[in-house]
Amino acid sequence: MGSCVASQKYQRHIRLLTDILSDAPLIIIKEKQTMKKEIRIYAEDTDGDSTPDEVTIEYVVDGKVIGAAIAFDKNQDGIVEDTIVPADLNGDGRVDDSDVQIMKEVAEAFLKVKW
Description:
four-stranded antiparallel sheet
């Protein structure tokens, strides 16, 4: 009996919401979908001497590259001399020296791997 009283009490509100929502655009609530996120790191030998001199990091979401950065080790001593970092690598909302430092550290670590 309590639920019947509550139901009657809110009928006006239910009708009002139904009227409002019938004029509103259809909103479909989807299940939370997970994104596939990847970081791809690769080295290239651009001068053909069999030693890598560039390292690229690509940020990939659902198979699409959404950002990238490149580090250069032109004298091939394992220390990055220059970078191109147009992406926010640390996720703080801006591209700055901390992103450049991250790129240098990742590239230098990656260049230590010998194959």
